[in-house]
Amino acid sequence: MKVMEFARQTHVYTLYEPRSYRVGKFSDTGSAETKRETILDIKGHGFLKRLWTTHGKGDHIKVHIFVDGSDCPVISGFAHELSMAAERISCEQIPLGGFSDRLSSNLYLPIPFADSLRIDAEPEGEIGGGPYWQIDYCLDCDEKPPLPRQTSQNGKPVLVYDTLPSAPPSADREPLQFIDEDIELHEASPHNIRLEGGGIIRKLVISGKDIDSLLLRIAFDGQPAPDGLSAHGNPGDRQPKPHPEDPGISGGD
After folding, report:
1. Which residues lie closer than 8 Å to 117 by C-beta, 6 or more apart?
2. Domain 2-160 adopts which CATH fold?
3. pTM score, two decimals?
4. How far apart are CA 197 and CA 163, in angstroms?
């Protein structure tokens, strides 16, 4: 999906921007299985980053999100319908607002709060097991994204922004550099790739036959390379034979 790739790129571009906040996470099973319950109630300022939920039937759970002590929810409705409404918001500022695969619901829209955040949930009939919850938020955060506004169309929720959040930083940076090589490796003859200058490795893909026997070593800033790792991330069963030069990146097809 192009939108997923764009979301990933947006996330990666902001990884090394200076930030200051406290990360919060809530995980639970069974809350709101038979009746309405408050599944999260926190004090402080920050914003909701992600809400994920699933249950046996996939479309029988409602969620209600309240901020700053208000009795009126900012967002309210069936979790899968809210996720699909958020998915329709796709732009540079919000590359992926939500996602639903009929069984699980993901809401990625940032929901800011100045004093408190409360999330209620309730079942609509028999839910068929669960529900399961994963909620991510941050506290003491300087970022202040605007609140989405909920309307409806044909009985389904619609989420809109009167003012979109600020776009991700677009400071002048070196363009992405790609290295794409087809190589043939032989025992005790590693292939070395050396990259000069500072930067970030954003993606590393290795494919080929007998990938389980491939050893990968990565060294930074002139440091000796560590013991080889297999393609599955386990320590290599054997040590690579010495090579005249410390490898930067060893691996290949």
Report:
1. 40, 41, 42, 46, 48, 65, 66, 67, 111, 137
2. Jelly Rolls (2.60.120)
3. 0.61
4. 40
